[in-house]
Design a protein that fits this description.
Length: 368
């Protein structure tokens, strides 16, 4: 059987055709609302696109995945993953977020940059290698949902269904540079307790004043780390709510803290520090994302460096946080454009993304 496979002469698809198909697919995805948990339409579109290339897919919830045609259990498997859900458009949009306008070599639309460009580029890369008979590795393409809300029915729901994965490329807008580590993410909801009373005679115990002391601590405390290294933990108060009316001393003040952390501290260690320095009670929200990292000598990282790609630690979180295998985060577009009004990605960024993904996998194959 292996002899027959090796004798097959299968050429790669034309790159220009893949570029054009990627733009067409991205346009189709933009036109279909796909808020987290409601990505049925985009999942259907992705399945239909792959079916046009004769690729059989597997689906669970709104997650779609598939494998290269000549899958070999003896070879390592590389996961190509990105998401097709989006956040809701913010109120500052001036363009229709679901109208894929192409203007000045840019394609505008909700999810175009985060992470539509990465997704269609990885899909095109998978199609490029799909019928190759002499790969040094297998490929698993997974287009997943519920990334933006860290939902239970996203990539986490299929990890046990996938064939064993050796390492992964997670598609997110990084300017095609390699994020070799990603900070974890944890959110806590805090409550400062006081005692209600009338404001005029200064009765009661003002919960806002108590919350202010804790908020000030969150804004200034620095977790110990060696000199000249990035801060291991960043805590930001992002929401606050208190008071019933102007003449009542509030007995309760609620606020939310967004916490980003690297591998130097565990969630439990961070929470212990908070307990020892604050008076507010708090609850930790579900779905804590743990930090991820990959060895700088891993073949995937080395292959990227050979191509001139820079490595860095990403301050943002993604589905990379759910993966237990080594991974890099890498994709076309810029992180700063994510979740902004009139979101866009440059067409040349998608073409570059496809090209670089292909070259990266070719470079990896020499190192396995």
């Amino acid at each position: 059987m292996n002899t027959v496979v090796k004798q097959l002469n299968i050429s790669h698809p034309d790159l220009n055709q893949l570029y054009n198909e990627a733009i067409e697919l991205l346009s189709a995805l933009i036109a279909i609302p796909s808020f987290s948990g409601a990505e049925q339409g985009t999942a259907n579109e992705i399945e239909a696109h792959l079916a046009k290339h004769g690729i059989n897919t597997i689906r669970k919830n709104n997650n779609v995945w598939c494998y290269n045609k000549f899958f070999d259990n003896a070879k390592p498997t590389i996961l190509l993953n990105s998401h097709h859900d989006t956040v809701k458009p913010n109120e500052q949009y001036t363009l229709d977020p679901f109208n894929p306008i192409i203007d000045d070599e840019k394609i505008h639309g909700l999810g175009s940059n985060d992470a539509g460009a990465s997704l269609v580029s990885l899909i095109s890369t998978f199609i490029y290698f799909y019928e190759s008979t002499d790969l040094a590795f297998n490929l698993c393409l997974a287009a997943t949902g519920e990334e933006e809300n860290s939902g239970l029915n996203g990539i986490r729901s299929i990890l046990n269904d996938l064939k064993p994965i050796s390492f992964a490329i997670v598609g997110e807008p990084t300017g095609m540079q390699m994020a070799i580590a990603e900070k974890g993410s944890m959110v806590i909801d805090c409550v400062a307790k006081g005692r209600s009373g009338h404001a005029a005679p200064e009765e009661g115990d003002n919960a806002i004043y108590k919350a202010i002391k804790d908020i000030d601590w969150f804004s200034h405390f620095k977790f110990p780390i060696e000199d000249h290294l990035p801060a291991p933990v960043k805590m930001t108060v992002t929401e606050i709510n208190a008071g019933l009316q102007h003449n009542i001393v509030p007995g309760e003040c609620r606020f939310t803290v967004d916490i980003r952390f690297d591998h130097n501290y565990t969630p439990r260690e961070i929470l212990n520090v908070i307990i020892n320095h604050t008076i507010s009670s708090f609850n930790v929200r579900p779905n804590v994302l743990h930090p991820s990292n990959i060895d700088v000598l891993h073949p995937l990282v080395v292959a990227g460096q050979v191509l001139g790609k820079k490595t860095y630690v990403s301050p943002t979180s993604s589905d990379q946080g759910w993966l237990t295998m080594p991974s890099v985060k890498m994709g076309p577009g810029e992180s700063a454009r994510s979740h902004t009004a009139d979101e866009f990605v440059r067409i040349e960024e998608i073409e570059e993304g496809i090209t670089l993904y292909i070259h990266l996998l070719e470079s990896v194959s020499k190192r396995l």
